[in-house]
TrEMBL record:
<dbReference type="InterPro" id="IPR011257">
    <property type="entry name" value="DNA_glycosylase"/>
</dbReference>
<dbReference type="GO" id="GO:0006284">
    <property type="term" value="P:base-excision repair"/>
</dbReference>
<protein>
    <recommendedName>
        <fullName>DNA-(apurinic or apyrimidinic site) lyase</fullName>
        <ecNumber>4.2.99.18</ecNumber>
    </recommendedName>
</protein>
<dbReference type="InterPro" id="IPR003265">
    <property type="entry name" value="HhH-GPD_domain"/>
</dbReference>
<dbReference type="GO" id="GO:0140078">
    <property type="term" value="F:class I DNA-(apurinic or apyrimidinic site) endonuclease activity"/>
</dbReference>
<comment type="similarity">
    <text>Belongs to the type-1 OGG1 family.</text>
</comment>
<dbReference type="Pfam" id="PF00730">
    <property type="entry name" value="HhH-GPD"/>
</dbReference>
<feature type="domain" description="HhH-GPD">
    <location>
        <begin position="139"/>
        <end position="206"/>
    </location>
</feature>
<dbReference type="InterPro" id="IPR052054">
    <property type="entry name" value="Oxidative_DNA_repair_enzyme"/>
</dbReference>
Length: 325
DNA sequence: CATCAGGGCCCTG
DNA sequence: CAGGGCCCTGAT
């Protein structure tokens, strides 16, 4: 496929709240790679379909943990208005939580026995989402009942068939399709991409977005209980998908009702030193994180990410077994 | 070669 | 609220 070259580059400056850990925010080592983004220290490439325009984004570190500064480079086919740029800037601030105030959290738990070391290591890290609610839902559907390796393959197939290849900042990356395009695809075509029964789920999840029945911006304003209810009403979204969506998409950092099995295995070993083959029951983990209220989810994120960053720096044997990528 | 479970969810009884 | 079925694939 010939890439679409995004020749126009415009740059805006963002000053995140301090402290800010750039790399641990924009890159999550436990996430599997998809061909819509690329990371190297100090820089993340990310495609986005924003207000119907395919964009190339580079978010670049220009500051320090104590004095954060970020350049957002926006690549497009034709120039973008000031208003558009400001709009995408605000969206990136939201998605990467660049204006999050985490001082209270840090102060409260920096000496905690389990959480303290993670805070020390990753101080200023934030949860993030790479894209929109729809972008994220596509991933949660492809995660279902499949080993990671297969999820990666399914995402790759989908991007190649229905995505748009963009070239910007000397990288070629795919941009996700518009929901209305996917909603019209015959189920059989999707099945050819070896997504199996997920074809039906992908179609059904695309529909409300194609018909503008789901307004992500509006949902952001609603109470967590309402957000959860609406997410669960979507076909193909269950408790596990919700456990990812509530913090990452809707920034509910105290939301912790469910810990998926593979995370439970890993966290259980880390926290209670159990074997990964017999992890602590979910109840026990939820109870443990109860003490980090009102930051239960944020606390789990720090402990989780800390483990993965350490693993990246010097591989942890037992963790390798749990990643079948 | 067969069998099985995998970073779920829906539907049924 | 428990349990079967769903697509496909790599591991055993």
């Amino acid at each position: 496929m010939q890439p679409v070259k995004l020749k126009v580059k415009q740059t805006v400056v963002i000053i995140p709240t301090s402290p800010f850990n750039f790399d641990a925010t924009v890159f999550k080592p436990a996430h599997f790679p998809t061909p819509d983004s690329f990371w190297q220290p100090g820089k993340r490439w990310q495609t986005a379909l924003w207000r119907r325009r395919p964009l190339g984004l580079i978010i670049e570190n220009k500051g320090t943990i104590a004095k954060p500064k970020v350049h957002l480079h926006v690549f497009s086919q034709t120039g973008l208005s000031k208003e558009f740029l400001e709009n995408i800037k605000q969206e990136i601030i939201w998605r990467f939580n660049l204006h999050l105030n985490s001082k209270d959290f840090i102060e409260r738990f920096k000496t905690d026995k389990i959480l303290g070391p993670a805070i020390k290591n990753l101080k200023g890290m934030r949860p993030m989402t790479h894209g929109s609610l729809y972008d994220f839902l596509v991933i949660t559907i492809m995660l279902q009942n499949a080993p990671v390796r297969r999820s990666i393959q399914m995402m790759q197939n989908l991007f190649e068939k229905y995505g748009k290849l963009l070239e910007f900042g000397s990288k070629k990356l795919y941009c996700l399709w518009p929901a209305e395009k996917l909603a019209k695809v015959p189920e059989q075509d999707l099945r050819k991409l070896k997504v199996g029964y997920r074809a039906k789920n992908l179609l059904r999840i695309s529909l409300p977005f194609a018909k503008n029945e789901i307004d992500e911006m509006e949902l952001r304003q609603k109470l967590p209980t309402e957000q959860k209810k609406i997410l669960l009403s979507l076909y193909g979204v269950g408790p596990q998908s919700v456990s990812y969506l509530m913090p990452d998409i809707f920034h509910n950092f105290d939301f912790l009702e469910h810990v998926p099995l593979w995370e439970r295995k890993i966290l259980s070993k880390k926290i209670f030193n159990t074997g990964t083959e017999n992890p602590a029951p979910e109840e026990k983990l939820l109870k443990f994180f109860g003490k980090y209220k009102p930051y239960k989810q944020l606390a789990m994120h720090y402990i989780w990410e800390d483990l993965w960053w350490r693993h990246k720096q010097s591989p942890i044997d037992w963790l390798i077994k749990e990643v079948r990528a």
